[in-house]
# Entry
Amino acid sequence: MKIERIDLYHISQPLVSPFTTSFGTQLQRDCLIMALHSEGLTGWGECVATNDPGYSYETVQTAWHILSDFVIPAVVGQDLQEPDDLARWFDPVRGHPLAKAGLEQAAWDITAQRDGVSLAQKLAQPYTQGPRARVKVGVSIGIQASPEKTVEVIGGYVAQGYGRIKLKIKPGNDIAIARAARAAFPDLPIMLDANSAYRLEDAPVLQQFDELNLLMLEQPLGYEDIYDHSRLRPQIQSPLCLDESIHSADHARYAIALGACDIINVKPSRVGGWAESRRIHDLCLKAGVRLWVGGMLETGIGRAAQLALASLPGFTLPGDISATDRYYVPDITAPFTLNREDSTIDVPAGLGLGVEVDLERLTAVTLRHQSFT
Ligand code: OSB
Ligand code: MG
# Structure
């Protein structure tokens, strides 16, 4: 299918509640949305880069630059057969996985529509086991003003039906929060995410979590580190999960070889897309490393694609994929809701992403738009 036109939108939506991590606070969420047009079909993708380079070096501005000056010109006008084609066209551009993943998502959407299947079905084609119809999810809670406030916020989400809670931590805002949460919710699956705020020398601080029966400790050390995590792992009892450090299937292979983690949080954006995510899935399934799908405060477009990935057999832990009302009211798609009886969200069953984009709402939140032919 010839890619006739690509539309790029920089959008900005207010978050329902501020989101504070060890690298800063987000109140307003900007991201890039792209639409790939071919043969009367439209494939949608989301680039989850943020305003500041806190999580990744990429920002909405660098992603706009890389997409509009390099990636889109390499793709527009080409004959797309399968999403794997993009890797070849992206080859001259080093790095910038978040920018590339947005377009790759759109290619998965449009080719799944062409094939007459959902994205989950298309992703699950290599496996004997079909995609799950609903996936286990949790909620990621930013750093709050106090341990008491943290307990109150957890209580609100538990009342909504969330069965797994992730708490953000940073040095000085860690053990007291985690102890208060565990004391208030003795049986709740609780995990902590440090977003790279500690060093290997902080192992004694991280050992204090051993007694709390955590589901896991996510990315305590450097955002490019694998080796120090392999040295930390035998020193702590909490299962160790990597997020920021894993940029590719090769990185997953290095982490497995070094014994650097028990679990990997797969964010398709961070690893350059869904094809690479599936490679990581296959490697980890073989090596016994457990998996879940991470989030970047996606709109409904990105959320649909997260759910499709999480429906694959190896994603056995609850993902950071919450209901729409935890992020944006309204959103640019119809809302995703939580099945409160089992803390799941339904995987879209329609063609491709299976979501309809509200074009009026998209226009209303767009700061900048450009068409490429
Ligand atoms: O580290 O997982 C993270 C959001 C932005 C940047 C980094 C992270 C997160 C989250 C949010 O934890 C997960 C979600 O989308 O709900
Ligand atoms: Mg994380």
User: Anything to note?
Assistant: The chain has twelve helices and 13 strands.
